[in-house]
User: Fold these one by one.
Assistant:
Number 1:
Amino acid sequence: MLRRGGQARDRRDAVVRPLVLDEARLIARIAARDLRAFEQLYRIYHPRLTRFLTNILRRPQLVEEAVDDALMVVWKRPEGYNGESKVSTWIFAIAYRIALKARSRHEEPVEDLQAWSRASPEAGPEQDLGNRQIQEILSNAMGQLSAEHRAVVDLTYFHEAGYREIAEIMDCPVGTVKTRMHHARRHLKAMLADRFGTDWR
Amino acid sequence: MTARRGSPSDRDGHDGVRDLLPWYVTGQLNEAETARIEAHLDGCAECQAELRFEERLESEVARLPFEVEAGWARMRRRVEGDHAEQPVLRRLQARAPWLGWGVAAVLMLGLGVLLAPSLRPAPTIDAYHALSAAAAPEPGNVVVIFRPDTTEKSMREALKASGARLVDGPTSADAYVLHVPAAERGAALANLRGRREIILAQPVDSGGAP
């Protein structure tokens, strides 16, 4: 397994792996109506789902509702987790389905292209200019992808989901996941190479 | 297409390996897949280049998130603000109007429309500076949100300890805009974020400000 350090990974890990918990045990406690267990789970998944669904819905109000709705399903129907997959796969799949329904209810495509273009809160005068340019190009390139492609990229790189897990979350064949990732990478690479040349080829 | 040196003759095998590289980089493949990729990488210059690209792309994409932070600050307020006395369903369904998505959106947009006047030397700020000091008006470069029960004394101590001056607030979203010396903003933010009475402290930059 390749592991690299750096601030970016540290920041991402703070969201993806805030605690080493037996999440299946949390679900069992939630099934026993343990509010503290639900609160723990909520704290773990709210930021993860917010990011994930922002990629799909791109409207803050819809994201907020969808995240809460997804976690409410966990609270109301914890027995829906059958133990065969990771807890994260089950919860992300719930959130993805809710997001697709929310998107279909609000049919007009509101592609908030600016969302990917906003500066990171960590970005500032102290941030290296080259890094900021890379982030800007990448942000724009991500904004040009479809919601499904962005979801695959985000699940892969940020949430570190495997392709089989992503297929389960998105309820599609693993080949579709690979194809979406292939096209997304090709697009991102072309955009980066176009701006930065051979360094990104 | 770049020629591959020493790559396997099986084109499908090459494509299959290439398409798995994202999950190789994030360590999400099983042992057999990992071994297959590493064996292929040894002799395929094209996939070696792809791997280098993957590593950089993964790192850059992982740096993109930020909306989570504002969202999480809002949720932390909701979860911690009204504690265990209320049924959890009501807590989760309740909305915290003073710290809703409006705030998150505003913060994400660099304080956008609602706070934009606060980031410029607005007339009211001019007046404030004219009365208190001869210095030119300073634009806000940090926004903070205090817990609702924070006392004036605690707020004052937080500002002093972080070297911050109040520029504007409370806004309609109960946020405060502060100015801290640009060179010390990182330390000031760290100080503010470490305080219990502060829910959120974010750097912001006005249009022409450094």
Number 2:
Amino acid sequence: MHRLSVMVNGVRHEQDVPSHRTLFQLLREDLDLAGTKDACRQGVCGSCTVLVDGVPMRSCLALAVRCQGKHVTTVEGLETGGKIAPLQQAFIDEGAVQCGYCTPGMLIMATALLDANPAPTEGEVRAALIGNLCRCTGYAPIVRAVLAAAKNRHPPSAPSSSRAP
Amino acid sequence: MNDQTPAALARQFRYVGKPVLRGESIDKVTGRWVYGADLVLPGMLHAKVLRSPYPHARILSVDTRRAREFPGVRAVVTGADVPYLFGSAVRDEPFLARGKVRYAGEPVAAVAAVSEEIAREAINLIDVEYEELPGVFDPLVAMRPGSPILHEDLATYQMEGAYDRYPGTNIVGHTKVRRGDVVQGFLDSDFVYEDVFTTQYVQHCSMEGHVSAAQVASDGSVTVWSSCQSPYNFLRDLSNALGLPYNMVRIIVTGVGGAFGAKMYLRTEPLAVALAMRTQGKPVKYAHTRDEEFIGAVVKHPAHLTFKTGVKRDGRIVARKITAVFNTGGYADAGPQVARNSAFSGTGPYRIPNVWIDSYCVYTNNPIGGAFRGFGVPQATWAHESQMDMIAHRLGLDPVGIRMRNLFDLGDSTITGEVLYTSVGVKDTLRRAVEVSGYGTPLPASDDPKIARGRGLATMHKLTNTPTNSTAIVKMHQDGTINLLCSSVELGQGVNTVYRQIVAERLGIPIERIRIGAADTHYTPYDQSTSGSRSVFHMGNAMLLAAGDLAQKLCALASPLVGVPVDRLLFRDGGVEEPGSDKFLSAKEIIERSFGARGSTVQGEGRFAPTGTRPPDKETGQTPRMSAFWMYATHVADVEVDLETGKVKVLKIVAAHDAGTIINPEGAVGQIEGGVVQGLGATLCEEMLVSDGIVTNPSFAEYKIPTTMDVPEIVTVLVEAPHADGPYGAKGLSEPALAPTAPAIANAIFNATGARITSLPITPEKVLQALKRVTP
């Protein structure tokens, strides 16, 4: 057992965890954050992606103990002050959500992309999401949603240097 | 009101035909939507299943002692403990293998423990002794006399009456179509061509795998929570298997993370129930791992299709004979229905006077073939659309022209003798797809001499399982808000939103005031299944009837209150009015004044089933109405073929669909875009490899579904031929979205290179081999 201290969505958690416990298990089973999904448990499908200190990571392959002192962001952490993020709204508006099972992982991956590259091209969006599988939408509306969110976050007429959370 | 075109009708509508955002999306983007995988129940135990490593073997002994004694284990069960059989079309499948195993991956024993880890460790402590039996893996061999028999008891199984079965063989379903005189038809033809087409194993790859939980109460009643698409199928199948009355079995549908046919019939549920019968009331949850999805769920049937077609010199089809063999693996599951549907729409949307079809569903020692978006029709479409272009080429005809010569018009008869009386938009799908894609003009050549470019098209039709029925309840509260009760399942296809639109339109109530919940067989009324593209037509009609019934009831309640005979009252804009007067009572006022201020609810009920249906004749397949409606589609594919590597790149797909009136364009486009990409995967990259019954690529790392980088530009075209009996003219849409994609791509490859591929998937190896045949 290790005493783990980790910030998840801005809240500090202190938890005893065995060394083999994955971040995915910690989030879902210990912290009741069931928004993070898994579809393969071998790091291929991207459904379980979360941000660790801003870097997207497959939570099914990451050990919880490696997150000591780090900041983890899950889909539940994308809302601020009870308001959903523009990216989440864009997913709704563009019809990027069908069954929705891949959506949390897609949102996290796209958040990481937009943080690093606020005005991506369509090709850059597709490249960033290559490791996130979706079986319902055919990806087109997801790509549209990310591009629309980028536009809303950084309208071309009023470029902003601030990075949205 | 004389202008009945969809565009004119849409102008009259407030909700129908308008893009409406889905109500449930907000919970899905915030991580709050509760899927089966997310289910947590008090005291819940976790199940793991020991599966057979052999495709065909006798079970000599199962020793579970060490597993039972393992700390944390609460129940262990084997086939010897549960004598039940299930199966929707054929009751042939035990909850766990009894006596022998018929495919590698068949459940042999199951464990319920306090954690998944303990359950996993415990199944490794179970010792099973097998005696291997000779297996049969090729359905063409399995059909022959003298092959190893999978089901010695086939004659004793309970079975739906629609299919012929042949005890003593592996043939569990045989569907026939006989029309005209096929022998004379071939004699009357100028040319007769026979070609063979094959399709591969494809797995559904729902992002959420199969998952369920079961709990058994003290009185023996069973509650099942399931990520499934057919709660009443599950209720019927499970109640029948357990010998329990229907009101002692309860199916509660959780959020569903994709289904595509795979979640139509029982799969994890019998195992969860078998364990839950031994845990003193503690619920047991069983979730497939991804590799279990590949080896132990269901897959799309590989098909072997022999098409013999007689044509006149001008391209008119005179006769067609089809022999189709569907490999259904160890158990029937949906196999007989798949083979049946494939037969009944097997010749495509063409007028053909002389037809002879034999469609067989055959047991083999392979993974189980189940329902997969399209139910056997994509396999048939692969064959008839590939052959159509092959015949056009042989005759020197244009692929569009040969189709236009044969395609259905209003009033034509199908091969099963049904007169198409409404909504035949197939020629329009072809015309519009050609127009939008520029099919007639060749693609500009690539600068790279290694790259050949080409265009191809394919057209199809699909029936829906008929007759089926749906019941809806529209429940109004005293404040005038509404809950819709039905057993359709929101799988991601958007039905919940469509039903809200239909009821909002009918009652003139803002859509925000209409909510819809999940199916629960204790409370929501009967629906056959959320499958076969049937929901909008059937449940949509039931919703329309239920809304009308509610309006009628509110008018009847209002009549004495306003002193106006009920036949002069109308329900409109959320209340009852007398047209021409200023008399208006809101629903709230009606309910309060009728039942008191503490209120009540008023329910409208609607039941819909298509009329004029009759089961097809078993010997000929003839019936006056095979399908409640027919869907049509044409796809055009633009492709590039690398002549050195054989790699095919799809540049663009134009997908034109006749789904009748479109209720929600947002949802419709989503179904088509997603379907095309599934079709693309099944054409170019997906194949579950099965070697002597063993799946060799059971993971997303080895079985490749399309990613963001594999998807071409997709242009959707909605062709709306309103259906006379559809709710606001709507039909269905989902399944055809993936069916024409594969032959359109194969025809484009032929157009580019002269190489003809007749076997799916179209791998670079097959393309190179085919290129060698063209230029030796």
